[in-house]
Amino acid sequence: MLILIKPKELVLPAYDDHKGITAKFNLNLLRRINDELEGNFDLNHFEHQAEYNEEEGIAKSFITSTIQQKVTIKAMGKIL
User: Fold this and answer.
1) pTM of the entire predicted model
2) Which of 60, 63, 71, 74 could disulfide-link 80, Cβ–Cβ 3.0 to 4.6 Å?
3) Residue 39: how many CB atoms within 10 A of its CB?
4) Would you state the torsion angle of the CA atoms of residues 18, 19, 21, 23, taken in this order, to the nearest 10 degrees?
5) 14-38 pLDDT, tens per residue?
């Protein structure tokens, strides 16, 4: 099996795009938790991070809270 690993300069911009599409996609997960499961994530305090390991050909994207948040998800009866 041939595995083609692309260079960082090609892959990383797809996960860290200047329009913020990936960041919006990831934040949408928290927005849906807020809307559908009665969560209370403060979406204004998240930043997007993208990583690419060129040796393994693995790209990852994350959202990280910039402040400590106590989050309640009422539909699950959970406090995180």
Assistant:
1) 0.78
2) 71
3) 19
4) 60
5) 999 999 999 999 999 999 999 999 9
